[in-house]
TrEMBL record, chain A:
PROSITE patterns hit by this protein: ABC_TRANSPORTER_2 (PS50893)
Any coiled-coil regions, as ranges: none
SMART domains from the UniProt entry: AAA (SM00382)
Keyword tRNA processing: no
CDD domains given in the database record: ABC_FeS_Assembly
Keywords assigned by UniProt, alphabetized: ATP-binding, Nucleotide-binding
Any one Pfam family match given in the protein's UniProt record, by short name: ABC_tran
Upper lineage: Bacteria, Pseudomonadati, Bacteroidota, Chitinophagia, Chitinophagales
Name listed for the protein in its UniProt record: Fe-S cluster assembly ATPase SufC
Organism: Flavihumibacter fluminis
């Protein structure tokens, strides 16, 4: 589904990703962990197409297409979804109106007919109960004045609405208490299927108790330095990232 | 002969030919105009709006206004079937095209009102609002006091439907210079919704210099909407003077979407204690459109509240001007005055000049002001695009979201939907 080969990228001339290799297949859950500044969020941003970042080498193939050639909206159309670490507040635009536009533009991209008001409402109700979000939240200005938990739940709701093939969760657990993490994770799990994949980017192992990964990768200094099963996350929780630094220095 | 000279001659002739109750007002105004002339850019209040260039070409004055064909109807506002419609064509009130539907709404030719039941109201108030607008353009309007209208709302009367005022210029016979004039008197405990709009017929150059005075008595309520979406050949100076002579409430929203040069003077003079007023505005300009909003809030008495919020979206090589003056006179203790102006520039060649101007002579007041000029939020744009919304749609959603808190101030549902539609069309949504 996703094939990242020797990806180099940076911002303002500073190289942050220094050769990432990663393959994700349908149905898999991958977790990328790593200390602050290792390049986790940069990877998420580059995959979603944030224009501030410059790709200086390597390739990313998504469902047979060159992902890096596509505009952010086309990436979403192809089935990529990024749940933001810091969802943007947009006063004056409700989540419902935003989603009405987004769902229909994605459908248009996929060659599907636009949903009419009744169909959209039906879809919305279905997804609302799936991710356990209140309608009041969705009629308010997008993320404005939302708590951290509400913002992340809104991200998961948007994900459910757009039915992505690959969902990237960028530090979805940051700033959330245990209950909020559990609710957000339950939403993500409700959307998972054999056809779609999930890439969880996180600092802590905690989120992985609820979204259980098939593979865990450790990102350090712009490279994936270690990969393993879900037990790797537990190991990291135990030892911290300092051992990596030691290993790297020796190597 | 220059256009200005022609105008002066016309005003002179008009004065000689018309001997009615308004003639002293005309004569005084002409004398003032002769002295002041058209404001030049060296006049601080007209620094960015070169109004004098509009007088560089000939206009027809005193064009036949009896023409009542249906062309003006293209500018009708929503739900006009139940509204009161007052139609000015080339600055002159056209009674045949106008309809007064609501009980209790008084609409009279101004010269008639000046001698009947409302003589005292007219004489006491006409031309008494221009304290801060002693410039030539205001005097010019008053020196042609023909076809003006008196709008009255009697004590304790709530006018059920809005009063739509259409300022139409008909340029099918050539360039037009029009000067509509209205005096509105809202008596104690009365309420009215006034809506002004503008429209040009034909493809000549249109220049409207319009003045409205609104006198608001004790416990009266006025909602006032100004909707400007005129043609690319039309310029406008629109002056609205509010005088809150008793404790009262005014809610004003100015929407400017098109025109060559648009200058709005909105003055709120609070002459009584406990007055409350809102002044909202949205200007959304493109191409070479120029929109200038000059506002004055004059606090003369204590315990008043004014709330002012203008927003601008500027595209192409358009220009926006916002000048918000707040006077707090020595006696006006314990007042609250808020002002904010926010702008988004969509192009490198668009300009905005924004200036808060507070003159405070009282020592126990709360005033705030602020202005911002920025670009469309890149982070917001990326967020929307990452959900599959195209760049064009994302921009449109963000701009609409920016405008919506001003749109929401239009409390008349059909009118708000109408303006929303105009804006959505502009955004290509």
């Amino acid at each position: 589904m996703l094939q990242i080969k020797d990806l180099h990228a940076g911002i303002e001339g500073k190289e942050i990703l220094k050769g990432i290799n990663l393959t994700i297949r349908p149905g898999e859950v991958h977790a990328i962990m790593g200390p602050n500044g290792s390049g986790k969020s940069t990877l998420a941003s580059v995959l979603a197409g944030r224009e501030d970042y410059e790709v200086t080498g390597g390739s990313v193939e998504f469902l047979g297409k060159d992902l890096l050639e596509l505009a952010p909206e086309a990436r979403a159309g192809e089935g990529l979804f990024l749940a933001f670490q810091y969802p943007v507040e947009i006063p004056g635009l409700s989540t419902i109106n935003f989603m009405k536009t987004a769902v229909n533009e994605v459908r248009k991209y996929r060659g599907q007919e636009a949903l009419d008001a009744a169909e959209f409402l039906k879809l919305m109700k279905e997804k609302m109960s799936l991710v356990n979000i209140d309608k009041n939240l969705l009629t308010r200005s997008l993320n404005e004045g939302f708590s951290g938990g509400e913002k992340k739940r809104n991200e998961v709701f948007q994900m459910a609405m757009l039915e992505p093939k690959l969902a990237i969760l960028d530090e979805t657990d940051s700033g959330l208490d245990i209950d909020a993490i559990r609710i957000a994770a339950a939403g993500v799990n409700a959307i998972r299927s054999k056809e779609n994949a999930t890439l969880v980017i996180t600092h802590y192992q905690r989120l992985l108790d609820y979204i259980v990964p098939d593979f865990v990768h450790v990102l350090y200094n712009g490279r994936i330095v270690k990969s393993g099963g879900k037990e790797l996350a537990l190991e990291l929780e135990e030892t911290g990232y300092s051992f990596l630094k030691n290993e790297m220095n020796i190597a | 002969m220059s256009t200005i000279t022609t105008i002066k001659d016309k005003a002179q002739q008009l004065g000689a030919a018309t001997q009615d109750a308004l003639q002293p007002v005309r004569a005084a105004a002409l004398a003032a105009f002769n002295q002041l002339g058209v404001p030049a850019v060296k006049h601080e209040e007209w620094k960015y709006t070169r109004i004098s260039q509009l007088f560089n070409q000939p206009y027809q004055l005193g064009v036949d206004h009896t023409n009542t064909d249906a062309a003006w109807q293209a500018f009708r506002l929503p739900e006009y079937e139940t509204a009161n419609e007052l139609v000015f064509i080339n600055g002159v009130y056209n009674a045949a095209a106008s309809t007064v539907r609501s009980a209790g709404l008084i609409v009279l030719p101004l010269e008639e009102a000046a001698k009947g039941e409302y003589a005292q109201v007219v004489n006491k108030n006409l031309g008494h609002s221009g304290k801060y607008m002693k410039d030539g353009i205001n005097a010019l309007n008053a020196s042609f006091l023909v076809g003006a209208v008196f709008i009255g709302v009697n004590r304790s009367t709530e006018i059920e439907h809005p009063v739509y005022i259409y300022n139409i210029t008909d340029g099918r016979a050539g360039n037009v210079f029009a000067q509509p004039r209205t005096l509105v008197h809202v008596a104690a405990n009365a309420g009215v919704v006034l809506v002004e709009t503008y429209g040009s017929i034909g493809v000549a150059d249109h220049f409207t210099n319009q003045v409205m005075e609104v006198v608001v008595e004790q416990d009266a309520r006025v909602e006032y909407y100004k909707i400007q979406n005129d043609s690319n050949r039309s310029s406008l100076v629109s002056t609205t003077h509010f005088r809150q002579v008793g404790k009262s409430y005014v809610h004003a929203v100015t929407i400017s979407l098109n025109g060559v040069m648009v200058r709005n003077n909105l003055n709120m003079v609070m002459e009584a204690e406990h007055c409350d007023s809102n002044m909202f505005g949205l200007y959304f300009t493109s191409d070479s459109c120029h929109v200038d909003n000059h506002t004055i809030v004059d606090n003369a008495k204590p315990h008043c509240l004014s709330n002012e919020y203008y927003k601008g979206i500027l595209d192409g090589s358009s220009t926006g001007v916002f000048n918000g003056k707040i006077f707090v006179q020595q006696d006006a203790q314990k007042i609250n005055a808020f002002q904010s102006n926010k702008n988004i520039l969509l192009s490198d060649s668009a300009n905005v000049y924004t200036k808060p101007q507070l003159e405070i002579f009282a020592d126990d007041v709360k005033c705030s002001h602020g202005c911002t000029v920025g670009r469309l939020d890149e982070e917001g744009l990326f967020y929307l695009r990452s959900r599959g919304v195209t760049e064009a749609s994302a921009k449109s959603l963000l701009l609409h979201a920016f405008a919506v808190d001003i749109l929401d101030q239009i409390r008349h549902d059909a009118l708000r939907a109408y303006v929303d539609q105009l804006i959505s069309e502009r955004l290509g949504a």
